[in-house]
Amino acid sequence: MIIDSHVNLHAPQFDEDRDAVIARAREAGVQMMVEISDKLSTFEATHGLAMAHDDIWCTVGAHPHEAKDHVDLSADRLIELAARPRVVGIGECGLDFHYDLSPRDVQAAVFRTHIHAARRTGLPLVVHTREADDVMAGILAEEQADGPFHFLMHCYTSGPELAEKAAELGAWFSVSGIATFKAANEVRAIVAAMPADRIIVETDCPYLAPMPHRGRRNEPAYVVHVLDKLAEIRGWSRDEAETRTTDSFFALFDRIPRPAGA
């Protein structure tokens, strides 16, 4: 299967042609998508997409940019929303010290709330991290010591030390269109060293369109370019890359029934 593990189809960039974007993804061979929650105020739209399409599932959570508006968010609230049909993950959540759109201590506190919800539900945690390697490594290690949880380092572009620590802690990794960028040699080197049985692919659409679409609005149909680049980096055939990422996806998102023959 070709699976886009991280789409933001609720974003306003798709308001004019959302149905056409979904149709193009299917035409390109994308058989499943995970629609990602970035804040609770848009969760109904996120969940609505999953409920309306048999090949779309969703998560629930708040991006670190939005942490300032989720100071009072509790694990219980996340768990309540995660009990809805077709919710298969917690997040996107984490730390972003590049933009600092929320105070760093608030980001960390809200991130830990998501971790607690992931641990209690058994759902995988979708982690965003940018320019916060040391703090992220510390939180992940502390929380794993308190009790295990599955987690995905989404669109990984941080350093090799954090990648090694996260892998040691059992992380999955998702590769995005950034791996196709001409100047992204460091990202490709890290992709080459990721655990082979814990790699999946994503677009993060409408952002980060891969080559040859860079600079345009991204969409799920373009995940095929990410899959091709992953195969090239790892020295896999296209079929092997598809098989490996499919196996890794269902191992992580284990609440999604695996279709027969996939």
Features:
single chain, 262 residues, alpha/beta, 8-stranded parallel β-sheet, 16% strand
Topology of helices and strands:
Blueprint: E1 2-7, H1 18-27, E2 30-35, H2 43-52, E3 56-60, H3 75-82, E4 87-96, H4 104-121, E5 125-130, H5 133-146, E6 151-153, H6 160-168, E7 172-175, H7 185-193, E8 199-201, H8 223-234, H9 238-252
Parallel strand pairs: 1-2, 2-3, 3-4, 4-5, 5-6, 6-7, 7-8
Helix pairs in contact: 3-4, 5-6, 8-9
Q: Would you kindly provide a written description of the structure presented here, covering whatever features stand out?
A:
By secondary structure, the protein is α/β, with parallel strands linked by helices. Helix content is 40%, strand content 16%. The chain contains 9 helices and 8 strands. The chain has helices at residues 18-27, 43-52, 75-82, 104-121, 133-146, 160-168, 185-193, 223-234, 238-252, and strands spanning 2-7, 30-35, 56-60, 87-96, 125-130, 151-153, 172-175, 199-201. Strands 1-2-3-4-5-6-7-8 form an 8-stranded parallel beta sheet. β2 (30-35), α2 and β3 (56-60) form a beta-alpha-beta unit. The mean pLDDT is 98.
Number of strands: 8
User: What is the count of DSSP helices, taking H or I runs of 4+ residues?
Assistant: 9
Strand order of the largest sheet: 1-2-3-4-5-6-7-8
Helix content: 40-55%
Arithmetic mean of pLDDT: 98
Class from helix and strand fractions: alpha/beta
Q: Unreliable segments (pLDDT under 50, ≥5 consecutive)?
A: none
Radius of gyration of CA atoms, rounded to a whole number: 17 Å
Strand content: 15-25%
Rough outline:
globular
